[in-house]
Amino acid sequence: MTKPICFVTGNPNKAREFKHIVGDEFSSSIVHQKFDVPEIQGTPSEVAIAKASAAAAAYGGPVFTEDVSLCFHSLKGLPGPYIKDFFTKLGHDGLNNMLAGFEDKGVTAMCVFAYCPGPSEPVTLFIGECEGYVVPARGNGNFGAFGWDPIFEPVSEREGEGRTFAQMSAEDKHAISHRGNAVRKVVPFIRSLLQ
Ligand SMILES: O=P(O)(O)OP(=O)(O)OP(=O)(O)OC[C@H]1O[C@@H](n2cnc3c(O)ncnc32)[C@H](O)[C@@H]1O
Ligand SMILES: [Mg+2]
Hints:
The chain is of the alpha/beta class and 195 residues long. It is built from six helices and seven strands.
């Protein structure tokens, strides 16, 4: 018997936001599991392909993985896919300080969903982006905010209320976020897989 599609992630916030964006549609057809798979160095796409391949091999069936990058324009796209280590070690203040010498605080949040149908199979990518600015932390602890949400102010907010992701309701964040944009691309694909 073939295994159900597995969303492999060790981050419960990712699974929570995915479910919030999609609703209950796939709740009986997608399982969630955590595997510790290596994350290689490379571009966001290279990292995502390698992670999905490793996850499919570990699971022995079809998987989705999700990789998030935060690309600072002044730093030629770094930390990019290495944001987790930078954030864990430097925190919100440290990430702001990295840009202290630069005028341009622009940043691209990128979410890459990768689908791998099984061990040694090719990987398909679904990429969502959101443009923003790195700002001093605002709204920590609100609305289930996590990670670097408090220091990410979407470009679209500059003209409006100037909220960071951490100051927005989940609905408002998902309407424009890197993850919302990626999930909206991947949903029709999952539907076609389940037909
Ligand atoms: O097991 P996986 O799925 O890899 O989960 P992870 O937490 O290791 O996730 P990544 O490798 O993609 O690293 C991305 C980092 O960015 C953070 N992050 C991801 N999505 C975010 C979001 O929407 N808002 C704020 N921070 C986010 C996350 O907490 C990590 O520190
Ligand atoms: Mg990770």
